[in-house]
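Q: what sequence does this backbone want?
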């Protein structure tokens, strides 16, 4: 699937930057174009893969490159005011070559949580391609203003995009882990899962052809209908013999490749599907009642078989109750593991979202305290002499 990715705010820019690194490393060519938008100049300067001409600084007249200080109302305002600056960068995207736009943002800060929904609405008004969101929820320990921002942004973002895929930091940060190290690991998890999902069906010259093809239309159909999505992932390393194609013995005896144990290959696939569905999802939820699902099995083509994928797909149907469960394989020659990525779209039973909705209601009772915290954050971004402080992470 070919995407135009737009990273909004600090977290969004870092994730898009990591997607570009993933493309370079794997040759998957998912990102057809990448743009980073921010109100903080320092955050844009910290990116390494997004081209400089594709980094857009907005809100200069209001915040002078220092960021909006977790004020997502201000983030939305400056995005509305400077939407022409962003559109100028988007005009350089060959939209006839992309399947969809993906707007990536952290939902706890000010720029991303406020500006990403504004941009999504703008894109949907102008373009016919689907506009998806990838929103990252803040951890519950990051402060009241960040939780309130996420509660407000979630309600707006999910309404403005064709589908909102969510990653919940609260379920992924490890106890005692540094902020910088935690986000670096989280971003890698995001890119690994979504990289395999969006990479399915992108076949280059000389690549293996999937036995059961998953192409961009399958992903688009699964995400159609709006709502919220989560992604599960599980992988298993191949044995030494499997990875080497039979090892030295087969070469000396004239053999080409070891015989495939079909039963073992099938069982491994079905086991990975269960782990992907019942393990850590990007947004924890009860999978029963999921409206649509897509299973992608990735790995060396000889260890992906139709029987295992079909069994996994039927198991997902039973667990979710959905009759819209698609599945297929993503051959990756030379891979050292077999992976299962499961996209669950139109999920309903999500405790974290209920918590956010409750926070949004309760916040009205102490809105003045929250605004005071937000104003303090904004003032702290600029020192007395006007110099910028170091990025938070």
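A:
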């Amino acid at each position: 699937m070919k995407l135009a990715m737009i990273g909004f705010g600090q977290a969004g820019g870092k994730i898009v930057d990591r997607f570009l690194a993933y493309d370079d490393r794997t040759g998957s060519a998912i990102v057809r174009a990448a743009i980073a938008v921010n109100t903080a100049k320092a955050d844009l300067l910290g990116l390494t893969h997004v081209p400089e001409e594709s980094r857009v600084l907005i809100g200069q007249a209001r915040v002078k490159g220092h960021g909006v200080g977790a004020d997502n109302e201000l983030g939305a305002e400056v995005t509305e005011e400077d939407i022409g600056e962003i559109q100028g960068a988007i005009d350089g995207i060959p939209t006839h070559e992309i399947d969809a736009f993906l707007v990536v943002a952290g939902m706890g800060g000010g720029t991303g949580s406020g500006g990403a929904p504004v941009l999504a609405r703008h894109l949907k008004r102008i373009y016919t391609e689907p506009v998806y969101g990838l929103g990252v929820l803040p951890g519950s320990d990051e402060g009241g203003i960040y939780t309130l921002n996420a509660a407000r942004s979630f309600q707006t973002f999910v309404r403005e995009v064709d589908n909102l895929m969510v990653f919940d930091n609260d379920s992924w940060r490890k106890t005692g882990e540094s902020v910088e190290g935690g986000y670096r690991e989280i971003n890698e998890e995001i890119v690994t899962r979504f990289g395999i999902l969006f990479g399915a069906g992108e076949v280059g010259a000389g690549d293996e052809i999937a036995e059961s093809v998953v192409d961009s239309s399958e992903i688009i159909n699964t995400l159609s209908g709006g709502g919220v999505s989560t992604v599960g992932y599980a992988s298993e390393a191949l044995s030494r013999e499997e990875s080497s194609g039979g090892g030295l013995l087969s070469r000396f005896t004239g053999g080409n490749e070891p015989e495939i144990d079909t039963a073992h290959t099938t069982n491994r696939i079905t086991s990975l599907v269960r782990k992907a569905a019942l393990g850590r999802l990007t947004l924890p939820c009860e999978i029963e009642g999921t409206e649509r699902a897509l299973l992608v099995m990735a790995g060396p083509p000889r260890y992906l078989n139709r029987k295992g994928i079909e069994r996994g797909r039927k198991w997902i149907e039973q667990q979710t109750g959905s009759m819209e469960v698609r599945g297929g394989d993503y051959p990756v020659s030379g891979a050292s593991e077999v992976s299962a990525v499961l996209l669950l779209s139109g999920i309903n039973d999500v405790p974290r979202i209920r918590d956010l909705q409750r926070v949004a209601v309760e916040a009205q009772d102490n809105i003045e305290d929250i605004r005071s915290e937000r104003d303090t954050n904004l003032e702290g971004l600029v020192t007395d002499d006007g110099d910028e402080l170091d990025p938070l992470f």
